[in-house]
Amino acid sequence: MQQDQFYIDLGLSENQYSKEVIAGQQVYTSSFLRFYDLIVLHIISRWLWRCPPQNMVDLYNKYLSGNHLDIGVGTGYLLQKAKFPVEKPTISVMDLNPNSLIESKRRLAGIAGQLNAYRANILEPIHTKEKFDSIGMSFLFHCVPGAIRKKASTAFQNLLKIRKPEGVIFGATGLHDLGQTHLLSRRGMKNLNKKGVFHNTEDTLPDLEAALKENFKDYELYVIGAIAFFAGKKAK
Ligand SMILES: C[S@@+](CC[C@H](N)C(=O)[O-])C[C@H]1O[C@@H](n2cnc3c(N)ncnc32)[C@H](O)[C@@H]1O
Fold it and tell me: Given the CA of residue 73, which atom of ligand 1 is nearest to it?
C-alpha cells in the first residue's frame, strides 16, 4: 500500500492492468474533467441516453449515508449536488484514475467532515481499513471491460466485503440493449465502444438483474432512457 498526500494507493501499477481496463479510465485527464459535467452529464446523458443527471442525483438522495464510499467518482458532481443525511459526512472517494481523485477531493473538501481518497480497481479485491454504510457507483460499469453479469457480480462481491451489513450498494449504468432503441444512443454507444471509453456491448438488463439476484436477497432495479438504476440491500 502506497500513500501520498492526495490518496492511498490500493491498486496495481499501470502496466499490470489489461489494455481494456486502462482504456476505460484514461480519457479522464485533468483537462477533460473540467468539461466532464457539461459534456457527459448535461449533454450526452440527457440527449443521447435520454436521462438528465437529476435522475442520478435523485438516486444519491435516496441512498447516501453519512459514511459514504463513491467508486468511479469522476468529478464528484453527484456528491456535490445530492443531499447527505448528516451535516458533515465522512466521504471516501475511490477511482482507478488519480485525476478523478484529485478533482473530486478538491470539490468535496467543503462538504465533508472527513474526506478519504483511494486509488483502486473495481474488478479487484479492495482492502480498506474501514467499512461503509453506503457505496455508490454511477456510470462505472459501462466503462469497465467484461459482460455485465460477470463484472457486476465481481464488483458486488468485492464491495460487499467493505460494506456494513445494513448498508446499501447502488449505482447507474448505460446498458447496450436499452441503447438500441434510438438512433442517437445507438450511434453514441457504438462510437464510445469503438474508442474503448465504453465496454458495454455485452451489458443487458436481464444480465444486470441476474447479477443483483446472485448477490442480494433484496434489490431495486429501474430504467430511465438507456440507463439502468440499481440498489442492492440485504446480501445473500
Ligand atoms: C464516466 S465516469 C463516472 C463519474 C461519476 N461517477 C458520474 O456518474 O458522473 C467513470 C469514472 O470511473 C473511473 N473508472 C474507470 N474504470 C475504473 C475501474 N476499473 N475501477 C475504478 N474506477 C474506474 C474513471 O476514472 C472515471 O472517473
Answer: 6
Q: Is residue 177 within 8 Å of 142, Cβ to Cβ? A: no
Please state the pTM of the whole predicted model.
0.96
How many structural domains does the chain have? 1
Which atom, in ligand 1's list, is nearest to the CA of 41? 9
Question: Each residue of 44-72: pLDDT tens digit?
Answer: 999 999 999 999 999 999 999 999 999 99
Nearest CA to ligand 1 atom 25: 25
- Residue 78 within any structural domain of the chain: yes
CATH of the domain at 222: 3.40.50.150
The domain in which residue 181 lies consists of: 9-235
Separation of alpha carbons 2 and 157, rounded Å: 24
Whose C-alpha lies nearest to ligand 1, atom 16? 25
> From the CA of 97, how far away is ligand 1's center (Å)?
8
Cell of 200: 458495454
Q: Is the CB of 172 under 6 A from ligand 1?
A: no
Does 4 fall in a domain?
no
Kindly state whether residue 1 falls inside one of the protein's structural domains: no
The residue type found at 64 is L
Give pLDDT tens digits for 161-220: 999 999 999 999 999 999 999 999 999 999 999 999 999 999 999 999 999 999 999 999
> Exposure string (b/e) for 62-74, b if CB count within 10 Å is 16 or more?
ebbbebbbbbbbb
